[in-house]
Amino acid sequence: MQRFKKKKLLLFVLGIFTPLTLTTSKVNASAFGAEIFCTMRDGGNDHESSWNAAYTYIKKQKEGFFKVSPKNAAQQITETVIREKEKFSYCIEYLDNLHPNRKLIRDLEKEDKQKRKKLEKELEEANEEIYEKFTDETLDRYSY
């Protein structure tokens, strides 16, 4: 009984401290990723090489089966730069390159939605035409 309580307590303590250690490494990885990105951009490197270096670093710091997506890494860098404005004041001008043109994405999504609605309407009209061709007599399975 005493042994079971010790195991239970040990699992409880591990359950509390494990997420704290994982969160700290994520914060450190994103902070250093932001530092890599901003330092490279400030040094005259282009966006692509700076982004690849920062993203590779952030991705390698994440342990486990699932890795950080590029969108998530860009978000982490942006959050770090905004959170630490004094440290990364020179980097704010480069943040717009981390995120694609959101207006363009919204417009494309709106266009896709309109196309889907149009296709759904056409399909519904075609189904109504087919349904109108059938009478009650053609649907009666015993009418020969």
List keywords for this structure.
144 residues; mainly alpha; 5 helices; flat
Helix segment tally: 5
Poorly predicted regions are 20-26
Sheet with most strands? none
Distance between the termini: 79 Å
Number of strands: 0
Please indicate the percent range of residues in DSSP E strands (runs of 2 or more). Answer: under 5%
Summarize, please:
This protein has 144 residues and is mainly alpha-helical. Helix content is 74%, strand content 0%.
Write structural notes for this entry.
The chain has 144 residues and is mostly helical. It is built from 5 helices and no strands.
List the helices and strands and how they pair.
Elements: H1 2-42, H2 47-61, H3 70-83, H4 102-133, H5 136-139
Helix pairs in contact: 1-2, 1-3
